Automatic annotation (TrEMBL):
<dbReference type="InterPro" id="IPR036097">
    <property type="entry name" value="HisK_dim/P_sf"/>
</dbReference>
<dbReference type="InterPro" id="IPR003661">
    <property type="entry name" value="HisK_dim/P_dom"/>
</dbReference>
<dbReference type="InterPro" id="IPR005467">
    <property type="entry name" value="His_kinase_dom"/>
</dbReference>
<dbReference type="InterPro" id="IPR004358">
    <property type="entry name" value="Sig_transdc_His_kin-like_C"/>
</dbReference>
<feature type="transmembrane region" description="Helical">
    <location>
        <begin position="23"/>
        <end position="43"/>
    </location>
</feature>
<dbReference type="InterPro" id="IPR035965">
    <property type="entry name" value="PAS-like_dom_sf"/>
</dbReference>
<dbReference type="Pfam" id="PF00512">
    <property type="entry name" value="HisKA"/>
</dbReference>
<dbReference type="GO" id="GO:0016301">
    <property type="term" value="F:kinase activity"/>
</dbReference>
<feature type="transmembrane region" description="Helical">
    <location>
        <begin position="106"/>
        <end position="136"/>
    </location>
</feature>
<dbReference type="InterPro" id="IPR003594">
    <property type="entry name" value="HATPase_dom"/>
</dbReference>
<feature type="domain" description="PAC">
    <location>
        <begin position="278"/>
        <end position="333"/>
    </location>
</feature>
<keyword id="KW-0902">Two-component regulatory system</keyword>
<feature type="transmembrane region" description="Helical">
    <location>
        <begin position="80"/>
        <end position="99"/>
    </location>
</feature>
<dbReference type="Pfam" id="PF02518">
    <property type="entry name" value="HATPase_c"/>
</dbReference>
<keyword id="KW-0597">Phosphoprotein</keyword>
<keyword id="KW-1133">Transmembrane helix</keyword>
<dbReference type="InterPro" id="IPR000700">
    <property type="entry name" value="PAS-assoc_C"/>
</dbReference>
Amino acid sequence: MQASPVRDRSRHISPSGFGDSVFRSQILLAGAVGLIVCVSVALSDRVLAESAAFFFGLTALLWVTIASAVVPWLRIALGWQMVIPLLDIVALALLRLAVPDSGFGVLMIFPVIWLATSFGRAGYVAGPALTSLILLPHALLVELDLYVPPGTPPNTISAISLSVTLAFVAGVTHAASRRVESQRVLLRRQTQMLEKALRRARRQEATLREAFDAVEFAVISLDRNGRTMASNRASRSLLNQLGLPESTPWHRFPLYRADKITPLPLAEFPHLRLLAGETVENQTYCIGHRTGTRFTIDVSARLLRDDRDEIDRVVVVLRDVSAEVRAITDRDDLVTSMSHELRTPLSSVLGYVDLALESDGLPAPTREMLEVALTNAQRLNSLVNDLLAARSTSPSNAIALRPSRCDVSALVLESVDAIRPLSTERLISIQLDIADHVHAQVDAFRLRQVVDNLLSNAVKYNRSGGRITVATRLLPRDGDTAVEIRVADTGRGMTLEEQKGLFERFYRAESVRGSTMHGTGLGLSISRDIVVRHGGTIEVDSAPDRGTEVVVTVPQGIEPMSPFTVADRHAEES
């Protein structure tokens, strides 16, 4: 006979149904008793029908079996359900008293196990106690000759041994049942935790999937072999715009180099470059067939690793920058067109003003006005030239250097003298720390352009009554000697975000765009080009309300870098 389900701590019946388990357990016990009865009747010399204990035992067992089948045990409190195994013990004890040498005593172990398993400590105590209460007094009475049973008298030692055995079995079963129950509770809690974790993971997955599909740029997840594992809505939309099926594998994407002509070899695909140890960040490609829809895309790729730090997958991000490229091209074309249109009338204005100034007999006020007009026309012409230089991305149109040996200290002092009237007007003092006779092989005109721009910015963005510090010196650099020019001010300073775009063409910080401080946003970009062409560096150190310090370093004896080298240098810095 199998034990009934373990009792839950909440005193609910197990899902399998306590009533069904009661009947199954009881019918098995009744079947075993019936078999032993048949054997006892066939082999015993006694007439068992004359034994009252035998009759009452069989009758009790029969009615208990019927009750297990018809009583709705699920509607009855758990304490009352102990009646079934307790009555089984009574019935089996009566049968054993009637036939001591039969196996009815052994069958008592099953209701004892049932009680110890299903009814906790009360069942564990009640089973052995009831058994001892029935068997031991009867054996003691017989042993003391106070009662002489009909037939074979019971063995006292056998009765005591059976009681002890049943108590031991009940204890072991109860302990095992508690361990099983504890494990079951632990497993139930772990199952609940896993279910919560699974639900949370599913919610996070759904959230990530929605975010994945909500972004406007295409995201493709690839395995090590380049097979597509996942893609978002934007990537599928990109394929639809190109007239390609959504199932197009990554290696079949029509990628071209930035020149829009050369097909991208498979070995140069971003994910393979990344797996080869290269960095793929903001790389520009063209996607689409020559005769169909084409886009300029910005591609970045990242490696994702598993918990063993092995490559799990590659994530490729494609962003359509066609509109940005067109806007930049249109802006550059407009700047070029306007600059060329302005150069011809400006040249005429400069020429005629020069001729006018060379005329004899000009009144002083007229000459003064013409000189002002000439100064502003020259400034306008310089701006036009700066626009053209900034617009030029072709090495053939890049800034050309004409290096010669010059005194950098004298050059810086000339620039300081030129800016001093403007600084005096704003009550800005200039402190000098200029080393004497610092000579270098540089383009004096271009280097003066750099210093003029730095000093102009130091005055323009300084506070009234502020201070500018200008210093030059020679310092060792990579086994050679370099010239350092340092310009520091006590002005408004810049945030880190503003410093990021400082050397970009046409960049002006948002905080000064609406102010009265005018500018084109080209000065530092052109200065950086000039310094790089000299083989030098330009560094900026600034913080809000702390001022700005710019350090220019150029080799003392240089060989001018080729325009192609400058372009490569700019690409590396960006």
